[in-house]
Structures are given as structure tokens and as C-alpha cells.
Amino acid sequence: MTSCALGKGNAKTVVAALVLTFLSFAFFSHALHAEASGEYIAIRKQGAGKIALVLDKSDAKGNKESGLAQNLDSVVKEGLIFSDLFSVIPPPLNVRTGSDGKGSSVNFGALSSVGAEVYAGGSVSRKSGKVNLDMEVYDTFGTKLLMKKTYSGSEDQLRAMGHAFCADLIELLTGKKSYFGSKIVFVSNKTGSKEIYQCDFDGQGIQQLTNFRSISLTPVFSPDGTRLAYTSYTSGKPTLYIRSMSDNSIAAVGKDGVSVDPGWRNGSEVATTLSFEGDQEIYLIRSDGGISRRLTNSRGIDVSPTFSPDGKQMAFVSSRNGMPQIFVQDVQSGQTRRL
């Protein structure tokens, strides 16, 4: 056995060292966190989960092309920042070596010096009345080309072109689809009547879809985005309308009574509550407005249908037991259970 005696001075020194060690551990335990993945543990700073990306300015020749390039660069940058997946780093001055344009090459050493994981850049040109955005994406650590793609469209489609690149980049790096290119549908009374509008995922590009000067409610897109179902009081009673987003044709459910609360089962069938047979039951409606079949058959009001992704299960609200409660029904067999 070994014993050790410490004087007062030495004891104070040891205690102070232990306190500093404890405080240091406490501080860094808050500043760092560990992520286990497979056979290794990655230690990184708290909140440092974003992809370090250098987004270079698009190369363009000509004043017109330069203006288009600036607009596209802004769309892409704003979109990537909005996604909250990237830390967008300004490109270093010498990010490309050699001559401008196609003859230049990416300076991976300069990218590594600013901590970039991914580099994205390209060029903008015009041909046959179309704007072309040629983009390249590189892994800066492996100096490897990850993606090379051209996006084309008219000048009024620059926003869609930039968002298409954002969608491809996110899917490339995360393996997941994103909301770029998706639409939000909503109701507003800014004209004095409740009308239906749509906008881009970020609230931009607002477009009015109805102009009935009446009450339009409960808009919902089909899963493939090709059709819009909504309820309108244009005829004096709540009626379900189905609009094709490609040709703007509209089909109405021509039944007496109410027709409310649509919920899509798939791209061609939407469920809604109808009362033409007396009780308010849920029916499946075809895209042409015709009835496909009746889904519920019980005393009480059945409303708010919504479906599982495969369309085999339907959840809805029913007052069949007195108070409104949520039920789930197997669409094929009709078997229903209360949640």
C-alpha cells in the first residue's frame, strides 16, 4: 500500500485542479454532443448539423444573361437557406482556377480552407428562347463530381428552375424528397368574399383560384396535385367541386342536400359527406363528380374523412355513439373501430 501526505499548499492546488477539470468537463458537455452511427461516434459542436456549402455565382455572358443569373442565384440561395439544411458560405476569391467559363476548374484547396463540404456552381445561357441553367455539384473532400444537370424554362419560370435544382440537391445529399415545387392551398377573404388561393411552399407566388363572390371552404389537393376539391356555397347550399389543375375544368357533385368536408383517397377518388339519402354519410366520389360508392352506413353524422397513404384505411369523425368521436374503417371490408 502506498500512502501520500500533502501540505496545505499542495492540497489547495490539487483541489483547484479538480474543480477546473470538473468545470471544463461541464462546459464542454454542453458545447459538444456525440452522435452514434454504425461503428463510430462523431463528435461535433452543438447545433453543427448543417451542410457547409459554397454556392458560387453563376457564370454568364451578356447583360441579359447576367441579370437572369443574378435572379437564379438569389432564388437558389434563398431556397437553400429556407430549407435550414445548409450553412451557405461565400465563395473564396480563387474558388475557380484557369480561364472563366467552361475552361476553368474548381479549386478544392481553396474550398477546404473555408471549411466547405460541398460546392455548387454553374452557368446561365439562352438558346431558342429558353433559359438554361447548367449546374455542377462537387464533394470538396473527395474532389468528386456528384451531379451535373441542366434546367431549362422560360424567363417567367426562373423561380421554378431554381427550386428544381434545390430539390435535386437536397435529395442527392439526404436521400429524401423535399417540399420544393409543392403548393399550399388556403382560404382568404381579402376580396370581401371567402375565396381559395394557392401559393408556393414559402408563401410566394400567390394565385387566386376561385372568384365566386361567395363562400368557398375546405380546399384540398389530390395526392398527385392534379386536382383540387373544395366546398362552395355558390348554389346556395354547400356543394363539393372538383377542379382539374391542368385545364381548370370543374365538376360538381349533383346531389341534393349538403356536400362537405372532402378528403382524397388517391388521385382519382375523393371522400365527402353527403346527405341526399337523409343521414349525413361518407361517400367516395369520382373525379367527374359521380358517386363511386357509399362508405359509412350508421345513425349519426359522419364527417372529416382522411386516408392512410395506401388508401386502405379511413379515419373519420362520427356521432353514432352520441358524442363526436374518431373511428377507423377498413375501406374494403367496411369493418370499423373506435379509437
TrEMBL record:
<dbReference type="GO" id="GO:0015031">
    <property type="term" value="P:protein transport"/>
</dbReference>
<protein>
    <submittedName>
        <fullName>Translocation protein TolB</fullName>
    </submittedName>
</protein>
<dbReference type="InterPro" id="IPR007195">
    <property type="entry name" value="TolB_N"/>
</dbReference>
<comment type="similarity">
    <text>Belongs to the TolB family.</text>
</comment>
<feature type="domain" description="TolB N-terminal">
    <location>
        <begin position="40"/>
        <end position="144"/>
    </location>
</feature>
<dbReference type="Pfam" id="PF07676">
    <property type="entry name" value="PD40"/>
</dbReference>
<dbReference type="Pfam" id="PF04052">
    <property type="entry name" value="TolB_N"/>
</dbReference>
<dbReference type="InterPro" id="IPR011042">
    <property type="entry name" value="6-blade_b-propeller_TolB-like"/>
</dbReference>
<feature type="signal peptide">
    <location>
        <begin position="1"/>
        <end position="31"/>
    </location>
</feature>
<dbReference type="InterPro" id="IPR011659">
    <property type="entry name" value="WD40"/>
</dbReference>
<dbReference type="GO" id="GO:0042597">
    <property type="term" value="C:periplasmic space"/>
</dbReference>
<keyword id="KW-0732">Signal</keyword>
